[in-house]
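Progress report, Aim 2. The chain analyzed during this reporting quarter is listed below.
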Amino acid sequence: MAMQHFALALKLDPKHVYQALPRLLSLWFDFASIDPTNQIIEEGMSSSGFAKLLNKNKNDANKCMASNLKVIPASAFYTAMPQLVSRVTHVDKDTAYVVQGILKRVLVKFPQQAMWPLAWLKGSKKAERLQIGEEIFKEAQKNLSKNHKNMQKLLQEASRLFKFLKDLAVYSPPNSNSNTISVKPWKGSVELSEFVPPVQAALSISPLSKRDSPKDFFPRNIPRMRAFSSRIAVMASKAKPKRIKAFAVPGSFKHTKKIRELSSGVSASSPLSCDVGEMHFLIKQEAKGDLRKDARVQDLNNVINRQMASSSSGSSSRRRRLHLRTFAVTCLSEDTGILEWVPKTDSLRNLVSRSYNPQTSSFSPRRRGVRLANFGDPTLRNNYDRCQNTYFKDGNLSRATILFEELCLKPYPPLLYWWFVQKFHDPHAWYEARNRFTLSAAAWSAVGHVIGLGDRHSENILVDTNSGDCVHVDFDCIFDKGLNLPKPEVVPFRLTVNMVDAFGPTGTDGVYSSGLQTAMRTLRDNRDTLLSVLEPFLKDPVIDWKRYRSQQKSSSSTMQAKRSIKVIDERLRGIYNLRNPNLKKYRRTDGLSTDQDDELTHLIPLSVEGQVNKMIAEAISSENLVQLYVGWMPWV
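Predicted C-alpha cells for the chain:
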C-alpha cells in the first residue's frame, strides 16, 4: 500500500521526488531481498503461511514497480541512478529485470547525461555486471536508432571514450619521477564536443515539474569539450593520478575540417581561437579506496544543498550562503574514475605554509608558516610523539594536553588570518572571503559530524583562493570509520587553531557558531528526508562502507547499516554520541575519569544551541587533538 501511494505521488507530480523516491526504492529492495526460508528460521517460525505471505509481498512489490516503470517520469528515476545501478545484479531475478528496464528507459530519455552514471557497468571487472551494461546500452541504441540516430552513434562511441579514460587511469609512467606524459588525443567517429562533459553543472537535473522535453531538465549553456590535450600532468601522490585538460568550446559549437585537423595535429596541446576556456579532470585508480563512495556522498551533499536553500531556518541572507561546494565523481569501473577538477583551490596546509605575520621579527620562527606546515620537521614530530607517549604509554592525559599546548601550539601561533589579509587587499573582498570561509566551514562541520566524516587532515580540506569557500575531498572515511583507525579520529570535525584564527576576532563565536546552528537546525528539521536518502546508501550491496575492518558477512553488514542509521538518527535528534574508544583502551593514571555529566550527553537530546556548543568544545579540545594521528597535523 505504501509503495502504491509513493508511486502515485511521483506519477501525479515529481516535485517531491527527493522525499518519495528513496523511500519507494528502499521498500521495494527490502521486500525483494527477503528470503522466506531464512526469515522463518531467524524468527523461529515454522508456518508455511508466513512464507507464502513473504513471497506474496515480494511479488506484489515487483509488480508495483513493473506497472509503474513507464508511469513514473524518467526524470525522477534519473535522480536515483546510483541506487538503481547498484541493484542490476539483485538476487531476485524479477527485481533485477525491472531495475534494468528502468535504466534502459532513463538512458533512452537522457543519453548524453545518463551514460556517465552507467559508465562503470561498461568497465566492470565482474562479468555479470559487464554483460548487463552491454545489454542496457545495446537496447538503448536500438530504441534511439529510429528517431535519434545521432544519439545512437553517441552511445556507440561512449564505449571507446570510457576505455580511453580508464586506460589512462591505470597507466603507470615508465619514469616514476616524470610529472608529465604525452598521449595520442582521443578521436572517434563522433566529435568529443557532442558529449556532455562529466561536470556537476551539466549532470545535475533541474528542479522537477511536469515537462515534456528532455532539454528542459538540464542547462543548455554548458560548454563542451573540443579535444583533450595530448600532454597529461602526473600528480606527485603515490597513486599517480593524472590531470587531463580539455579545451572548452560553446555548447552550440560545430566542428569544421580545419579545426578537426588542428585538434589532432601538432596543435593538440594548444588552445585554438574557437576555445572559450579549459576544463580539467583528475583521472585516478584507487588501490584501496572506492570512488563510488565519493560519488554517493556527492549525491547526498546535493540533497543537503537543496534543503539548505529551501529551509526556513535562520535569516534569508545566511541561508543563501550556507552551502556545500560539490563536484562530479564519475566511476569508470570498480577502482577507476574521473573527478571534476575544482579550479583555483589549494589545500589548507599549503595556505598555512605560505602565510606569514608581518608584525613579527623577520628572524622569528613565528613569522612564517613554512615550518608549522612541514610534516617532516623533526622537532615538531618529536615533540608531538613525546606528548602522545605521555598518554598512550604513561596514561597521563592531563600532562599530555599541557605538553601539546606548550610544545606544539604556543611556539607556533596561527597564521591563516594573515593569508586572507594578504590575498584580498580590498576591505570588502577580504570581509566577504573571510565570511564565506567561516560559513562554508560551518556547513561542512554540521554535515561532517552527522554522517561521521573522518580523515579530515589538512590536505583533504581545500580553500577556493578566489572566494574563500571550503571544499572537502576524499570521502572514503565515512560513517564513523575514523573511530576504527589505529589512532582514532576522536573529534567531530576539523576545527584547529589556524581555522579558528581565520574566522576573525570572534573565533568560534559569532558567524561560525550561528552558521553552525543554522546548518544543524536545517538538518534536524529535515531528519526524515535525510534518513530516507542515507538508508539506501548504507544498504548499498556494492559498496563496503566499513572497508578494512574484520571480514564481514552480509548479515553483519546489514546489522552495521542499522547501527549507522541509528547513530545518524540520534545526531539528528540532538544526541552527541561520538564516543572516544581510547577511554576504554588506555587506563588513565592522572586521577581523572570521564565526567558523569559528559556521559549524560551521550543519552539526552540537546537543543540545537547545546549540541553546537558540545560539538565545538570537542573539536577544539586539546585533550582530543593530542590523541590524533601525527599525519592529521592537529597543530596546523
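The CA atoms of residues 345 and 464 lie 4 Å apart. DSSP finds 28 helices and ten strands in the chain. These observations will guide the mutagenesis work planned for the next reporting period.
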